[in-house]
């Protein structure tokens, strides 16, 4: 039997997508959550290939980078797309999401307290343009699918990734942000109402990020 261990900090962040994939697939894994002090010690062991988290260990073999980890688990558990073309579409949207996050990062870093700056000004000049552009792409994908999923007619891991981020935005920024893309708000609510995901959300440790 395959053993899985996910090592990350005690927050959602980049580790949450794998946790939700495990939850949806109802697969057991070790959810190893580190404090900053524990991470410094873990890092010194050299177990993390790129000296960063999250880290997935499969039968003791390490795999880094959150999207690569998610792709691997999604393929193992059948939510990576039903065809090679759907898989490519999922990967395309995941890469687009990285572009969005890269553009939005200056605002998000200030908003979440990682760096200093004028959050209100960054929201207007940096974040809103990035949100409108990239969430417009997500809206197009959702409408093209016509099935309530971003790709095809069933859940893929990109649905989990986008739904969680949208849920975080709804909680932090408010519903008005989604006034031009209400279907993405509905998508987030529907995905997070899937029984396995809802159960996980209800029991996961409370976190601001």
UniProtKB/TrEMBL annotation:
Protein keywords: Transferase
GST N-terminal domain segment(s): 2-81
GO biological process: glutathione metabolic process
PROSITE patterns named among the record's database cross-references: GST_CTER, GST_NTER
GO CC terms, sorted: cytoplasm
CDD domains: GST_C_Sigma_like, GST_N_Sigma_like
Domain (GST C-terminal) ranges: 83-209
UniProt superkingdom: Eukaryota
EC number: 2.5.1.18
Catalysis: reaction(s): RX + glutathione = an S-substituted glutathione + a halide anion + H(+)
Any one GO MF annotation of this record: glutathione transferase activity
Family: Belongs to the GST superfamily. Sigma family.
Name this protein carries in UniProt: glutathione transferase
Species in which this protein is naturally found: Caenorhabditis remanei
High-level lineage: Eukaryota, Metazoa, Ecdysozoa, Nematoda, Chromadorea
